Amino acid sequence: MAEYTLNTPLTDADVEKLKAGDVVFLNGTIYSARDAAHKKLMELLDAGKELPFDLKGAAIYYVGPSPAPPGRPIGAAGPTTSYRMDTYAPRLHSLGLKATIGKGKRSDEVKAAMREHTGVYFGATGGAGALLSNSIVESTVIAFEELGPEAIRAMKVKDFPLLVINDCHGGELYVKPRLDTAG
Amino acid sequence: MREIPVQDVIDAVAAMCIKANTELPDDVRAKFEQAMAEETSASAREVLRQLLENADLARDTKLPLCQDCGLAVFFVEVGDDVRVVGGNLREAINEGVRKGYADGFLRKSSCHPLTRANTGDGTPAIIHFDMVPGDKLKLVYMAKGGGSENMSRVTMLSPAQGWEGIKKFVVERVAEAGPNPCPPTVIGIGIGGTFDHSAKIAKQSLMRRLDDTHPDPDIAAREKELEDALNDLGIGPMGLGGKTTVLGVKITMEPCHLASLPLAVNVQCHSQRHEEVVL
Question: ipTM for the complex?
């Protein structure tokens, strides 16, 4: 398993070299979006309108941070469970999205979209929200402020620690439960 | 009749919300350390290392352990010989939640189920009241995250399915949930009662300390049996594989209808954030 430092926007070459199990330290700008924000992004696309950020080479972080206390750019900011965004991810990958960051399993449709459009799914450690916030150096709400924690934020990250869960070659890191031996 | 000023309840609730969200309980920390000693896989150990570092950081900075500060769930025991004066107890608990979630910079995660509009202040809390003998007021709080709650299920088994059916359902539920609920999880199980009551006692089971032993030796043995079966799944910390899929299994069993065998499986994430106070 390899270790890489990557910068956004991500290129096809960045993604192609990644294999499930690799460790990636991500730098640059990533965009927070979860359930409600994704729904609104789809409405913009349906209406033929421009999205609040450029999808080309983008990384979306499935996160709804806690409020920033005085003196910090952001509150706790760990990943939310990704499958709820499975409905939306294939369409976004087809439009240039390169990476999603979350926790938990993805659907077959998302995995197929990542193979077809050279995308990658990163896992961040769920429940390590305080620790992960240390890698976010700036955070600005850029859309849907009314959604509060679910607003879209541009987050500047420095060496954000990630693990490749699903690569663009069909590899997956999550283990299959051993149902045959359990109990 | 003993009297408790309403402000005491508000202040106690606010303090509990902040403490539970920023300080990992000692029993949970001990389980992390025990798991760290037992795990041999590098990825499992790295996840546990990060979770311990996260707990230290949250304690030192007062950042929440997790951005999902949960829905505020309370189990309240009101003594027969005590009453709250100057206001209503339910409203006092909600006011304490408002205060704690605002003052502690905790995320407010309560929203309208269809419009998804955030209620803005973390309320309404989910509150279960019980009347007990004595002149004390006991408040137990849990920050219940959505990711693990989504992996929970209630089912109405047939009495013929018995313990084997219960065990099969629980194992399959945890297997299906896989990495989603932030394993290693704590599994609260409610057996018996009615459809609604099984879910309530499953959640109440999660309020127990991880290092306790059920006073009924039969139930204690079943908890151990399920814990071993779930850890045999090999899901491990964050689903990356390992020996620690659950930190504990806690069962509450109560009588049910002749025709029924209600079963509720309430999944809780690894941080098991809860606090209690007796006024």
Answer: 0.95
